What we know:
Elements (H helix, E strand, L loop, with lengths): L2 E2 L2 H21 L6 E7 L3 H17 L2 E7 L5 H12 L6 E4 L9 H7 L11 H8 L8 H12 L8 E5 L6 H9 L8 E5 L6 H5 L4 E4 L16 E5 L3 E4 L7 E4 L4 H4 L3 E4 L6 H19 L1
Amino acid sequence: MSILIDGKATSDRIKGQIAQQVKEIIAKGGKQPHLAAILVGEDGASKTYVGHKEKACAQVGFKSTLYKFPADITEEFLLNQIEAINNDSDIDGLIVQLPLPSHIDENKVIEAIDPNKDVDGFHPQNVGKMMLNLPTFLPATPYGIVRLLQEYNISTKGKHAVILGRSNIVGRPMANLLSQKAEFGDCTVTICHSRTPDIEYYTKQADIIVAAIGIPEFLKGNMVKEGAVVIDVGITRMPDETKKQGFRLVGDVEFSSVEPKCSYITPVPGGVGPMTIVSLMHNTLKAAENK
């Protein structure tokens, strides 16, 4: 019988702790933390994600500002907006919601953000610090996953972790964090991706699997050994006429076949997603305190 890792309940508890810290800061005459977000275009999923972040800011007592721009803005215009926010001393953290329109260079945009306001943890300077295990803003999703492992006291020392996916947002930083010499690290890590032959060979050996490969229900029950810990990062809208909204959300894990074999597993939705947002809140509070 597996234990369901409840990311929503965990994130709510952590948000409560952050809200208390904010109250104490303000009571002592400190500044209210302020998170700014830039949204380019009308992508439905991006608008939903930004909405969740705005709601979380209100819950923890942050000030939030949303800059919305049409999809046809120029790269130069966006870079100028970022520079203005970098120079705004009232704003502590800045996120630019990805993906961006194809005519805008995402790497150029990420590098334009002030590393001290880069609460997504994507700037090369912060990535480098993470690789060296120095204090920095950790990418929100990998950091959220580590927090879940901590909250559920899931041992990682000496375990074999298999990461499905090699993105700079999840896969690579996740592998780095789990391999670091730390209380919730010390894993032997294997990264698998779309060019890995016989992925099942690796997943069957894994004590911990982090599925972030971007393929709905990719990980099946026959690919997982008994007692594995499975963290599902994926989220895809699948058409479903039985649902009021016309779709259902599924992860990169086929939950029905994998769940019976696991010791712990995250659901979709309600697993990693809420932890990503609360990690962003934590980074923003840290940015404000760093000032």
